[in-house]
Amino acid sequence: MEFKDRLKHLLERDGVTAYRIWKDTAITKGTIANYIEGKTNPNKSNISILAAYFKVNEEWLSNGEGSINRTDKVHEEEPFIVTKSGVKYYEMSNGKFRMRVPFIPVKAYAKYVDEFRDAEFMGDEYEEFDFIVDKIGHGRYFAFEIKGDSMDNDTKRSLSDGDIVLARELCKEHWRSRLHTDNYPNWIIVLDNTILCKQIVDQDIENCKITCHSLNSSPEYADFELNLDNVRQLCNIVQRVSSSF
Questions:
Q1: String of DSSP letters for 120-185
Q2: What does the pLDDT look like over 170-197, one tens digit per residue?
Q3: pLDDT of residue 61 exceeding 80
Q4: 177 lies in the same domain as 234
Q5: pLDDT for 81-104, tens place per residue?
Q6: Handedness of CA 135, 169, 208, 197 (dihedral sign)
Q7: Are residues 36 and 113 located together in one domain of the fold?
Q8: Which of 109, 167, 222, 230 has its CA 20 to 30 A from that of 122?
C-alpha cells in the first residue's frame, strides 16, 4: 500500500471527508486531495497531525511499517488545558497543540451580532473549529468565516470568500491606545448590524476613529472611517485557513 491507499483506508474507515479534515486540522482540502490522488506525499508535520487525527501509528501511516494501532498514549481525548476564556487545547505528539475555538460561520453572523450587542454571547452554542498552534494563548479567541471578496486581491495576503480565520479579541480598554496594526494588519470588526473583515491603516486616537481598508482595489471598496464608539468588538486576525483547493 502506498500512502494514498493508507489515507483512503482511514477516510473510508472513519467516514471522513477532505472538508472535515480541513475543518478539524487546518490541512487544506486541496492538500488532502493531492494526497489522495498520489500527487504529493505529506511532510513529517502533516503525518503527525493526521496520525493523531485518525489515532493511528505515525510509522504505519508514513511508510506502512509496524502496526496501524498507536503504541503511545493518545493525548487527544481530553483537553490538555481549558483556558479561563473557554479555549480548549489538545496536546499533539509533535509538540504542537490543536486549539479549539467557537466558529462563527457567515450564516450565523446576524445571530452573533445580536448576542454580542445584548451582552448575551454564549460560545458553547456554536460549532467549533480547530487550529494547529505552537503554544498556548490565554486570550479570548474566535474563528470567523470570511464572506465576500473585499479582502481578495489575488495574492497570498488575500482573505478570500470562505476562508476561516483565527481572531483574538482586543479588550476595549486598549482601543484608545495605538493599535498594533503593523504586527496585525487584518481585523474582524463587529458592528451593530454586521461583521467586517478589514485592515486598519490609520487611527485618530484623539477622536477615537479608525480608517478601514480593503485589499480589493475595486472602487466599491474604498477606504472609510469608523468611530470606535460604534464598534462592539475588535479582534486581530492571527491565523488563516484557506478554503481553496
A1: ---GGGS-EEEEEESS---S-EEEEE--SSTT--SSTT---TT-EEEEEEPPGGGTTSPP-TTT--
A2: 999 999 899 999 989 999 999 999 999 9
A3: yes
A4: yes
A5: 889 888 999 887 777 888 899 999
A6: positive
A7: no
A8: 230
User: Would you put residue 119 in left (φ > 0), alpha (ψ -120 to 50) or beta?
Assistant: left
pLDDT band at 166 (very low <50, low <70, confident <90, very high): very high
Domain membership flag for residue 95: no
Q: Do 125 and 217 have their domain in common?
A: yes
Contact 213, 201 (CB under 8 A): yes
Is residue 56 situated within a structural domain?
yes
The verdict on 54 and 109 lying in the same domain is no
Domain of residue 35, residue span: 3-63
Instruction: Quote the number of domains for the chain.
Output: 2
Q: What span, in angstroms and rounded, lies between the C-alpha atoms of 5 and 152?
A: 36
- Of the two residues 152 and 48, the one the predictor is more confident about is 152
pLDDT at 1: 78
Based on the domain organization, do 59 and 108 belong to the same domain? no
